[in-house]
Each structure stands twice: as structure tokens, then as C-alpha cells.
Design brief:
Layout (H helix, E strand, L loop, with lengths): L1 H9 L7 E5 L11 H9 L11 H13 L8 E5 L9
Parallel strand pairs: 1-2
């Protein structure tokens, strides 16, 4: 909701806004849950069967900062290996 609000407010100034939602990203904080996350990955919970890496998130942010998405605003980009997908 914040991204949409900021997009409305900043659009007239030509400032696009996105929200980036990282999923399971390998970091010091997530390593505490390594065992359970590995089970989730091995069990097929992620469409992309691997841990996310900080570079996965950084590439999205870098593309946005370069202006690659200058006509996109108020959007959410999930960088989660498909964790948020509804599965049949």
C-alpha cells in the first residue's frame, strides 16, 4: 500500500516507486533457520529450488535505479523463487 501511495504522490515529479519483497535470502539472519528452509526447498515449496542470494535482490534494485523500469510505478516485485505463488 505504501508503494502505491508514494507512486501517486511522486508521479507528478517523474519519480517512479517500486516495492521489493525478498523471499528466502541466504544471510546471517536466515541461517538460523537453515535446516527448516532446506527441507522446504527440498520438499518443492519453491518453484526455483534454491536459496535466494543477495545478488538476486540487488539485480532488481540496480535495474530500477538505472531506469530500466521508468514507466512502472506503484508495483511490487517479489524476489522469492516462486514462494508466493499459489500452487495447484
Amino acid at each position: 500500500m505504501a508503494a502505491k501511495l508514494f507512486a501517486h504522490r511522486l508521479g507528478e515529479y517523474g519519480i517512479p516507486v517500486i516495492e521489493v519483497r525478498p523471499g528466502i535470502v541466504e544471510s546471517d539472519m536466515s541461517l538460523v533457520h537453515r535446516k527448516s528452509i532446506n527441507k522446504m526447498i527440498e520438499g518443492g515449496r519453491l518453484v526455483t529450488p534454491r536459496w535466494g542470494e543477495p545478488d538476486d535482490v540487488a539485480r532488481i534494485i540496480m535495474a530500477f535505479a538505472r531506469g530500466d523500469f521508468d514507466y512502472s510505478t506503484g508495483q511490487t516485485i517479489e524476489v522469492d523463487g516462486g514462494l508466493g505463488l499459489n500452487r495447484l
